[in-house]
Design a protein that fits this description.
It is a single chain. 39% of the residues lie in helices and 26% in strands. The chain is of the alpha/beta class. The strands form two sheets. Strands 1, 5, 6, 7, 8, 9, 10, 11 and 12 form a nine-stranded mixed β-sheet that branches. The N terminus is likely disordered.
């Protein structure tokens, strides 16, 4: 009788070991926060799965660290709360490195140099930032574009400003005429305006800013150096170049942030 029960006990023990291993693996998965409506950087497809340039980056980092990435959708403002409270290991959403943000968060090295775009209706008559004088403008709450606009309120002279929680709501108001212009990351605007339902909108002006996009992490994260090393390796082994071309349709410049390995930033410069 004892001999008959031993195999069962052994199987039970093996199953328990396997379940424990799976549980440990799941708990070790990287917890990533992301704004889920920010194509081509990150967005949810029809199946509810995250896709995008930064999604591919974070999955590649996880792979190189011997784990997986579990991505959760968050409102843009909630991304900063999530890292500050250490509920996530990192967040992605075309986030700009700023000195103010570095006081409370950590960032990896940048991998993209951004520019802002002024989105308008095709017949708006707006062709430059100067043309925003007396106009109603909008952007995403707590974003780099919002900060850029508010810092230049007196200089630009726009009549009113609207702050939005989602890009979709902002562009809906732009289409309906509730605002005259939307200021946002130019890549995101161009991607959105290529969709058939937004053919009436265009990028009327480009604003070179030199802002640098990177992965944001809790201040002093013990994973920061590992993330940064993985990014450096991706820049030198051709992985980042391939992802850039996949999502943007052109090759990254050889001297660009996308292909240049850099240390963890201590300032926005």
């Amino acid at each position: 009788m004892t001999r008959k029960t031993r195999p069962i006990v052994g199987l039970a023990a093996a199953a328990l070991t396997a379940l424990t291993a799976l549980s440990a693996s799941a708990s070790d998965a990287l917890k990533i926060g992301s704004y889920p409506a920010n194509p081509p950087w990150e967005y949810k497809n029809e199946a509810g799965t995250f896709e995008g340039f930064e999604v591919d980056i974070i999955h590649e980092i996880a792979k190189r660290l011997g784990t997986e990435a579990e991505i959760s959708g968050l409102d843009f403002r909630a991304l900063f709360v999530a890292t500050a409270s250490k509920r996530v290991d990192a967040v992605i959403s075309s986030l700009t490195i700023t000195d103010e943000r570095l006081e409370a968060q950590s960032f990896t090295q940048p991998y993209f140099s951004g520019a802002l775009g002024v989105g308008t209706k095709t017949d708006s008559g707006i062709a430059s930032v100067a043309d925003l004088k007396g106009k109603r403008v909008g952007s995403i709450a707590t974003s780099f574009p919002e900060g850029w606009l508010k810092e230049r309120e007196g200089e630009i002279g726009y009549a009113a400003y609207s702050s939005y929680d989602t890009t979709a709501n902002m562009l809906t108001d732009l289409q309906s005429g509730r605002i005259d212009a939307a200021v946002n990351d130019i890549v995101s605007l161009r991607y959105a305006f290529n969709q058939p339902n937004m053919a009436s909108l265009t990028v009327a002006a480009e604003i070179p800013t030199g802002d640098k996009f990177a992965i944001m992490m809790p201040k002093g994260s013990d994973k920061l150096e590992a993330f940064n090393d993985a990014l450096s390796d991706m820049k030198t082994d051709g992985t980042m170049a391939a992802l850039y071309e996949k999502w943007f349709g052109v090759a990254a410049a050889a001297d660009s942030l996308t292909l240049t390995p850099l240390p963890v930033p201590t300032s926005a410069d």
